[in-house]
């Protein structure tokens, strides 16, 4: 795994302090989950590429945050009705009280304690009515509260109390964080609360996480109350992870006079505007104070030339001109800016240097496993290119050990059948063109140690000035 001394080697000294604050181990674990690769196969050079781009592109935000990776605010707000949260709490009660799970399931879609009419949960209400009338035809359930109905049905008092608490607008004390921490950004939708979005590391648009890490404008903010160990879907465990209850990604313009606010997840449209305005003010005040301007903002009124659209179609397309707030100068004028989040290519974590297609592009297949190049496959996959390049169309992929012509041309591997003589001695630049008296063609033997086809390909990085796109310069040694 990449060491901090290796990470800062070759980059301008002003980025050293910022890079030293990154948890490289946790970030690499996130990239392994993102790519569905064994963590041992994630390239140190790829990690270095991501974090160098992050440091260069996010340095202005590092200064905005007083040379920290994040800033925390104490907040207090009334708990709001969030369907994701409500359903999660009902699911927890169903596990705690399995005997009464059917009853809980029938009322979980009620937005208030009062059982109403005419919502998408009407089928549940029909079933509820059928069951109630079967037990006691005199019990009225329409218009009553869930608690009263459960009381009449003889459900336990402690269960009734816990159901009532689901609908209480309790005051919540928590933390609100504005962050450029790469781990925070990679874990945009990873949490122990069972809410999901397409920005999960294995989600349909999970490439939006790494795209936001390395681009020039993205910042993440979130509400949290707990932190602890967290296990990713690939089994890797991370320590001291803040559990995001609500999170929002932002895109800040080059001069910081315009901010695009994406939706808050998982609440989205049900997130209270009053709370959204309170959180927005934290960011707006931070920027206004940093720029030395009055904290007066206006929502983009569609008549300006301010726009925010993705450069590359990583992630999900929430960017527009609609959810932009503009900071006025001290004369009351706004500044029109046009900028593009996701403006850096993501290179494959395997280290081959391939620029990954974006998940919102037509060429991307959502049936694939992990965000990585086509070259990287695990043992047991059939090589699609063997017929044209190897003459062994039934050979299985073995991407860690072989190096065929297609790999050299397109960063792909296919397995050379070591039980046969070399089928392409000219291409392999091999002096053993005849059968080897029963000896196997083996890349580690004296016979094949210099073979152009089986020799390990070595990719390395030449130093390139920071700030120039494409840190990677690839070279294959023979």
Explain what this protein looks like in three dimensions:
The radius of gyration is 28 Å and the shape is globular. The chain has about 475 residues and is of the alpha+beta class. Mean pLDDT is about 75; it is low at about 120, about 380-385 and about 390-478. The strands form two sheets. It has a seven-stranded antiparallel β-sheet, with helices on both faces. It has 15 helices and nine strands.
List the defining traits of the structure above.
single chain, 478 residues, alpha+beta, 7-stranded antiparallel sheet, two-stranded parallel sheet, 15 helices, 9 strands, 13% strand, disordered C terminus
Q: Gist?
A:
This protein has 478 residues and is α+β, with helices and mostly antiparallel strands. The chain is built from 15 helices and 9 strands. A 7-stranded antiparallel sheet has the order 1-2-3-4-5-8-6, with helices on both faces. It has a two-stranded parallel sheet with strand order 7-9.
